[in-house]
Every structure is written in C-alpha cells, then in structure tokens.
Specification:
Oligomer: heterotrimer
Number of helices of chain B: 20
CATH superfamily of the largest domain in chain C: ATPase, nucleotide binding domain
CATH topology of the largest domain in chain C: Nucleotidyltransferase, domain 5
CATH class of the largest domain in chain C: Alpha Beta
Strand content of chain B: 5-15%
Strand order of the largest sheet of chain B: 2-1-3-4
Order of helices and strands of chain C: EEEHEEHEEEHHHHEHH
Shape of chain B: globular
Number of strands of chain B: 8
Distance between the termini of chain B: 58 Å
Number of strands of chain C: 9
Chains: A alpha/beta (263), B alpha/beta (445), C alpha/beta (262)
Structural class of chain C: alpha/beta
Largest interface: A-C, 21 and 18 residues
Chain lengths: 263, 445, 262
C-alpha cells in the first residue's frame, strides 16, 4: 500500500513516500516557482527514487501553508494532526512536539492515544523564529549553516531582544558597531530564539518525551539552549527533522486507505 | 440635529424586505445576490434547508422588533435603553419603547455594513477597548444618526468595567437618568435577596421616570408568554443532546436575539415552537441538521456576529455550534400568581443571565464560568471549545488560561483561542478566522 | 526675541530658529554617532545661516534622542508633544497627526492649542512602518518610490491577510510565483500598509483635520488607500514635515521662557 504525504510549507516543500509503515523515499525543495509546479516536481523526484509511478499511489494527503495548492493530494489535513502522527510513529513515547520551521513555531501536547490535547503557535508574529537567524546571518555576512558553529565559540553571549525579525538587522549591526564579538552576537541571536520557542511551547505543558522537528532542529545551539531552559532532553527524529509532517501525512493517508472496505 | 430618516428607520426599511421573504432557501440566496456584501453574508447564514422556516421567522422578528420600537417611540413612549441581560418584559408592561443597548448598534451595522459608527466613539475620545456591541450604539448617537434615550438601565453584567464606565459616560454625556443595578459577587440566598431589593427600587424609580405605573396584569400576560418560551427553550436544550446534532448553527445566535429584543412576545414563542418541532422530527429520524458532522463545539463566551455566514460555513465543514455562553439561559418559569413573585422571579432571572451569572464573582465559584462551561460540556457531549475573545472582555481574558487548562486537564477538551471583535470585521477578518478554525478542527481527529 | 528648537532623530537631526514668531533658519542633517554631536552640528549650521551665535538665543528646547543631555538646551520636551504642537501651529485646524516613519508609526491627537490629548506608537513591529514597504519593495525588485506609481494600473489588488511582515512576505512571494501582475501586487502591498496604519489610528481615533508626516506620506498609493479607509482628506504642511518636531520644540521654548511650562 503506497501512500504519499506532502508538507507544503511557507519556505520549503517536503514529501515522503511510505509503504506499509516503511519510508521508501523523501525529498525537500525550496519554493522557487508556482506551488503546483514545485509540488509536482517534488512528487516526480520522490516517486522516481522509490521506483514507483503515480498510478501506484493509493492515497496522497497534503498539509502545511500551501496544502490547497498540491494538485495530486486527495485531501488536506492540518499541520498539527500530521506532526502528531509523524512524531508518534517516529518516537512512540512522544508527548510534546516542538516544530521549529523557518518562520513558524508550533508546539503540540499529545496524550497516550496520540490525540492532540493542546497546541500553540506564533500565528501572528514571526519574532524569534528561524527567520531571525536568517536575517542576522545576512546582516553579519555569514552562512546560515555556519551560525551554530560560530555561536559555539561564544563565551559571553550578547543580550539580543526578541523583537521583530525585520528590525533584527539594525539591532545586530548596532551590536557589531559597539564592538561586541561576532560569536557573542550570534550566540545572543540563538538565545533570543530559544526564549521565544519556550514562550510558545510552555503554555501547552511540556512533558517527556519531547520531540523537536522542523528545519531549525538541525541547529545544535538551539537544541542545547532548549535543553538548558526546559531541563528536559530534546529528542530528534532519526530522519531529517523537516520530514516529520510529510511522514505524518503519508501515514494518515495509509490510515484512511485501511478504513476503506476491500483493503 | 438628528438626521432623518434615522438609522433605525433606514434599517427598518431594509428589513421590511425581509418580512416579505418566502420560506425558501433559493429565494434567500437570490435576494442575497443583489445585496451589498455585509447584508448578503448576513442572509447566507440562514440558509440551512431544514431550518429555513425557523430562520425566516427569526429574521422577521428583527423587523417586527425594530418597527414596534419605532412605532411606540413615535407615539410618545419613553425610550428605555436596557442592557441585554435585563428583562424587556418589564418595560413592555410599562408601555415603554425598549431598546437593547447592545443590539441597537449591531443590527444596523450587520444590515447596512456601516463601520463608521464603530469608529465614531473612538474619534470622539472614548477608548477603543470598549464593548463592540456598545461601540456602534454610542457611535450612531455621536454621529446624530439616532435619538438619545429617555432612560438607561444597566443590569450590572458581571465585572465588566467597560460596561460600567460606558453606562456612566452615556448618562452624563446625554444627560439621561441611569438606573444601575448592583450585582453582588456571590451566588447565595443573601445575594439574591439583595438583588431583589435593588430590582424593586429600580421599578419604583422607573415608574417615576416613565410617568406611568407598571401594569401588573399586563406583566402577568407577558410573563406567561415568556414562560412558554422558556419551556420550549428547555425542551430544545434536551433535544440538543442527540447525535447527530439536530439544530442549525444559526439557532444559537437567534436564541440570543429572541431573548434580548423580543422576549415574552408571541412571535418569539412561534420561533421556539418551529425550532422544537423541526429538531424533534430530525431526532426521530435519527438525522442531523447537516451532514458529515465531525465536531460538537461549545463557544465558551460569545459567538462572532459580524459575519453570520460563518455559522453556515461551520455546517459545511461539519462543525456543530451546539452552545455558547451567551445563549445559555438557566431560566426558571416565573410564578405569576402575585406581584411579589413576579418581581422576585424577574430579579432572580436577571441575576442568572449569561455574563452576569458566570462573571459576577470568582471564575471557579458557584455558578461561575468554570462550573457552567464544564456542566454544558458534559451535558451536551462537547468535543472541543472555542473562545472568541473581544478586546474589551478583560473579565474572561484574565482567567482564560485557567479555564482552558481546567477543561483540558479535567475533561480532555481542547480550546481554540480566537482574538476577534464581535462586530468589527477589520480586527480579525473572516478568512483568518476560518483558517484558524479549520486547522483546529482538523487537529481534533 | 530669538527662540530655538533642536530635534535629534534616529536618521536625521533638525534645528529651527524663530525670531519674534517667524522662522528665520532651519536645517536638516544626517545624524552623527552621538546625539550631542548631531545637535551641535545642526544648530551650528542653523545659527550660522541666520548670522547668529548661541548667545543670541533667548531660550532653546531640545527633543528626540538624548534631549536631556544637550548642553546648549535650556529645557527639553518629548518628541511626541513637539511633533503635535508644531503641526497644529502650522495648520491651526489640525487635530490628528499620523507620522509614519522608517522604523515606527505614531498617531498624535492634539487640541486647538496644540496640546497633546492622546497618542499611540508602534516601534516594535515592522507592520505599518516604512520598513514594511522597504521589505516588500525588495521582494518585488522595485524601488520603494515605485510602489505607488506601479500600483496605479492595478485592477485586482492581491489580498494580503497576514499582518506580520514576514508572513506577508510569503504571501507576496506566492503571488510572484503565480505570475500575478506587479501592479496588483504593489497595490496589495499599499493596501496592506494602509490597513496596518489604520489599525493603529483606530486605537485613538481621528478628528479632522488630519495631516500625514514621515517618509511614507510621500507614497501616493498608501496615502490614497488610507484616505479611503479613514474617510478623510489629509492637509498638507507648508514646510518640510521633517522640521515639525524642531518647530514644536521652538514653540515650547516660548512657553517655558514665559513660565507657562510644557
């Protein structure tokens, strides 16, 4: 039973092809053209990797910001449900999911049955999201992927406010002009993001096990910061953390197929 | 100089068209096509095919209520602005022209889409964190689109400071007498005795201002109609327990309007009768009011009034608006055997009205917000709660987290927190609200 | 009688000198690293232009950054008060000033004597500030000054529902990828900008006459949208709006010198 899950985010589109609880292939692409085109290219790439044709797919579910723009999806499901399903499959002991995307932070509290009992996200303001890292990196002329490593060199992190990402550039430049060390500034930027994530995740009630996913989960400095604040281990999935939503969507597609008579 | 026609007269002319509506969904949809977007959206909310008769009856009541007040006013009846929780039955029995302060502004804005009345009070210097329901009413008087009342009655809805201060402002600015009922913080016998005394004093004062005494025979008649309404209301509350949900989502908002603007009138009884009969027949067939139902929701405070189409949209995505706080009337039938029992009954009822009841005292005290919401959640087998928070509602925002945690921890029920204005669609527009509700509901599976 | 006002902002500093109630000199410069330097430079220029020295000034009020520490100032007043006062003096019927700057947005209500009645300011969120337009213009690869004109041909403005500039950016990007016309996207951006400003204005309300100051006042597209939303026609000011703060400071200098305070 082959199913496809497509998580079409604001900044990146992710896809997972599953077969009876096994992940066959996956792909991640930036959004650089019309959503329908990006989604179709992504599907073709993933199916090709898995050695399948479109006709082999029993059911496809899309999620994410652009979920209504995925032409091959049989239905759309909210991000929370997909994240919860994916997280629970990857780590059955998950009770809290913290998804840190490029501009969205989402926290879910799930019970033993995998049901979401509470959720919270930064649906009004991108302050302190991954975007902050991006804007700061640009302003400091660093590569986004190097930010964590630069921060690791810091001994006295600067205090950086968790203000609007768009204003972040001027704040960072001001610190530089005041003679602060680059590593300290970058560490400060990370700390500011950690505080914001904690502010969003806190209200749902953070319980073990905590699974962190989304692109920013790859940033070691953020993970360390979260562990220091929340005082619990931040577990990461064994797959690329950006794929959790897409995997969840594919699993939900599988669940749907199983419910149908004759399967 | 107040303009002519006044705003209500204008609204009444538009609503006159509503009075002529046939009980036909396609007729409603046709009419909606020719109207400006706000009025069209208003009508679309009423298009559940099972409930078309109830919806049209409700819409006609808007028209009847408005026309009746205008008529009474033109005959020289004293115009009394009353706060929504106050029993208009009393004012009808005094032959006054009663106007629900909150609804007075809401109805024209919904029908005519005139947002300038919402902005007018702020332009005039009032803070913008006042009740959305009041903004439009105050605004239309500030803009001289309507006439000031002869008396204002405030029933003291629970711990709402904006309400309290605004009533003072209205009385002072318009130089109109204000009758302020003081709602005590507790829900015990002493509190009810206190409130009954307040009520009596208020009736005396009202008689002085009205220049006419309360006609107790007329009150008895009206209260008997009101009692019939309440009996039907309770029957319907029981029918709500059925699965799938047998009522159209528009029922809840119309119930509130029946209460605020036309309580104790034969047309309101007719409304409830139609609702009861329709629901009953659906329950007997084991049918829901709309297909593919996936969530039974309790709105822990108000609904959203600026876009009635939302109620129908909720049906289309399978979400039942089973109950909201403002549509929950734990009213008892009033003993009409004597003047005393009638006045006491009215006083008790008023202290038990939504908002007053839940928010006059501690959020988790007897008959407090927590107790009522958890009761309703259990009784009506609720899957999820939605809190639609108006900027001004500090008394609920202040304890919302406590409430949502309690619902989550003790009953496993999640709450969606929406920041909206009950009347101003510019604060959080409909597409954003729909997205948030959709995401929330889709996470419930 | 010679009075002076000095206003040090985040990007520019202004000085204005009045003699017997008439403006005799005014200067605008880019800020120096420290506010005292900016103040000294701009005031020096203004005085030089008027052929005067510091000793000729009867009273000087400073406003803006570091206003308490300007050595030649006799007193200081907040920039909100100065801005409102200066605008109302220039056009006496003004009661509301909407100042949309590069990094903040303020709405100021004054009475018939220019006294501050109410105000609200946003300096924490880019929405409704010039930064929002800059951010969006960059996405569209147009100059910020082109956003107004290019929106003129729009027939179906793109709807931007998110208030946050970052989320709005995604909406704009999607529109670009979908091939929506630049005019429509520009119009959508102007409308979104006007909506954010309106949301702030709504918090203190509007009393006519209204004037718009700040860099964004030069974007015809945004101004037109705002006029429609607020149902007002803003009045223009007879001097460069950037000088309004320094002018207000000057007027307060008159008050303070004559003991009526600020």
């Amino acid at each position: 039973m082959f199913t496809v899950g497509c998580d079409f985010g604001a900044l990146a589109a992710k896809i997972a092809v599953m077969d009876n609880g096994r992940m066959l292939s996956s792909a991640i692409r930036g959004i650089t053209a019309a959503p329908e085109q990006v989604a179709t290219d992504l599907l073709n790439a993933a199916l090709s990797d898995a050695g399948l044709r479109a006709a082999d797919v029993g059911c496809s579910i899309s999620t994410g910001w652009g979920r209504k723009r995925v032409p091959f999806a049989d239905s759309q499901v909210g991000e929370g449900a997909c994240l919860a399903r994916g997280a629970q499959w990857l780590l059955p002991s998950t009770r809290t999911v913290i998804d840190i995307g490029g501009q969205n932070i989402r926290a879910l509290s799930i019970n033993d049955a995998g049901k979401i009992v509470d959720s919270n996200s930064n649906d009004k303001c991108a302050a302190g999201s991954g975007r902050f890292l991006e804007v700061a990196a640009e302003a400091l002329e660093l590569k986004l992927g190097d930010m964590a490593a630069v921060a690791a060199r810091s001994r006295t992190p600067a205090k950086v406010s968790s203000q609007c990402c768009v204003f972040a550039e001027s704040e960072v430049v001001t610190l530089l002009n005041e003679g602060r060390e680059l590593a300290d500034i970058v560490a400060g930027v990370h700390d500011s993001i950690v505080r914001r994530i904690v502010a969003i995740a806190g209200p749902v009630g953070i319980k073990e096990d905590v699974l962190v996913c989304g692109g920013c989960a790859k940033n070691e400095r953020l993970i360390q910061g979260l562990q220091a604040h929340i005082k619990l281990e931040m577990k990461r999935p064994e797959v690329d953390p950006q794929l959790v939503g897409a995997i969840g969507a594919a699993l939900l597609a599988q669940d749907r197929l199983r419910k149908q008579p004759g399967t | 100089m107040v303009r002519t026609p006044t705003l209500w007269e204008e609204t009444s002319a538009l609503m006159g068209g509503v009075a002529a509506l046939p009980e036909d969904v396609s007729a409603l949809e046709e009419l909606a096509k020719g109207l400006p977007p706000d009025a069209a959206s208003l009508l679309k909310g009423f298009t559940n095919p099972h409930y078309i008769k109830m919806s049209i009856t409700g819409l006609k009541i808007f028209n009847t209520a408005l026309t009746s007040v205008l008529e009474r006013r033109s005959q020289g009846g004293k115009v009394a602005f009353y706060c929504f929780s106050f029993p208009r039955e009393l004012l009808d029995a005094m032959d006054m022209a009663p106007v629900c302060t909150e609804a007075a502004g809401i109805i024209p804005v919904l029908a005519l889409g005139c947002e300038e009345y919402i902005d007018a009070p702020i332009n005039a210097g009032l803070p913008d964190s006042i009740c959305g329901g009041h903004k439009a009413t105050v605004g239309m008087i500030v803009e001289q689109a309507e006439i000031t009342p002869d008396v204002i009655i405030n029933a003291g809805p629970g711990s709402c400071d904006p309400n309290a201060k605004l009533h003072e402002w209205m009385a002072e600015t318009w130089d109109v007498p204000l009758l302020n009922l003081d709602a005590p913080y507790y829900h015990d016998d002493r509190s009810f005795r206190y409130y009954r005394r307040e009520f009596r004093r208020m009736v005396e004062r009202l008689e002085e201002i009205n220049g006419q005494k309360l006609d107790y025979d007329r009150l008895k008649e009206i209260l008997e109609d009101s009692n019939e309404q309440i009996r039907l209301y309770w029957e319907i509350q029981d029918l709500k327990k059925a699965k799938p949900y047998p009522l159209s989502n528009i029922y809840c908002v119309l119930v509130e309007l029946m209460k605020y603007i036309w309580s104790g009138r034969p047309e309101a009884i007719e409304y409830f009768r139609i609702a009861r009969d329709t629901a009953k027949s659906l329950v007997e067939k084991g049918e829901g009011a709309f297909p593919n139902q996936r969530a039974r929701t309790l709105w822990t405070y108000s609904g959203i009034y600026f876009d009635m189409e939302l109620f129908r949209w909720l049906e289309e995505i399978g979400v039942a608006f089973v109950q909201d706080c403002f549509g929950w009337y734990p009213d008892k039938v009033i003993d009409t055997s004597s003047i005393d029992t009638m006045i006491d009954g009215l006083a008790d009822r008023t202290l038990n009205q939504p908002m007053t009841r839940q928010h006059k005292g501690a959020w988790d005290g007897p008959a407090g917000w927590a107790e009522d919401m958890m009761f309703l959640a259990r009784e009506l087998d609720i899957d999820a709660c939605i809190y639609s928070g108006n900027l001004a509602c500090k008394q609920t925002w202040g304890c919302l987290r406590l409430m949502t945690d309690k619902l989550k921890n003790e009953m496993g029920i999640p709450t969606l927190r929406l920041e909206t204005d009950i009347l101003d669609k510019r604060v959080t527009p409909t597409p954003v609200i729909k997205e948030q509700i959709e995401e929330f509901v889709s996470n419930l599976a | 009688m010679i009075l002076a006002g000095c206003d040090v902002g985040s990007l520019s500093a202004e000085a204005l000198v009045m003699k017997n109630g008439t403006i005799i000199a005014a200067e605008i410069i880019k800020v120096r690293p420290r506010p005292e330097q900016s103040a000294a430079d701009v005031m020096g220029l203004a005085l030089a232009n008027a052929g005067l020295g510091y000793s000729d000034i009867d009273y000087c009020v400073a406003t803006g950054y570091g206003r308490e520490n300007i050595p030649f100032a006799n007193g200081n007043v907040s920039e909100i008060s100065c801005h409102g006062r200066g605008a109302q003096w220039l056009v006496p019927s003004i009661r509301t000033v909407i100042d949309v700057g590069g990094q903040d947005c303020k709405v100021i209500r004054v009475d018939e004597e220019g006294r501050l009645q109410n105000f609200v300011m946003n300096d924490k969120c880019a929405a409704g500030t010039g930064r929002f337009l800059e951010f969006m213009a960059k996405l569209l690869r147009v100059g910020i000054e082109d956003l107004g004109p290019s929106a003129l041909e729009s027939e179906a403005p793109v709807s931007i529902t998110n208030v946050c500039s970052v989320y709005a950016e995604t909406e704009v990007l999607y529109s670009v990828y979908e091939g929506r016309a630049t005019a429509d996207i520009a119009a959508g951006i102007n409308r979104a900008m006007a909506e954010r400003v309106r949301a702030l204005v709504k918090r203190v309300g509007v009393e006519e006459d209204v004037c718009l100051t700040g860099g964004v006042a030069k974007n015809a597209g945004v101004v037109k949208e705002l006029e429609e939303m607020l149902r007002v026609e803003p009045r223009g000011l007879p001097i460069d709006p950037q000088l309004v703060g320094a002018l207000g400071a000057c007027l307060f200098a008159n008050d303070q010198l004559h003991g009526s305070g600020a």
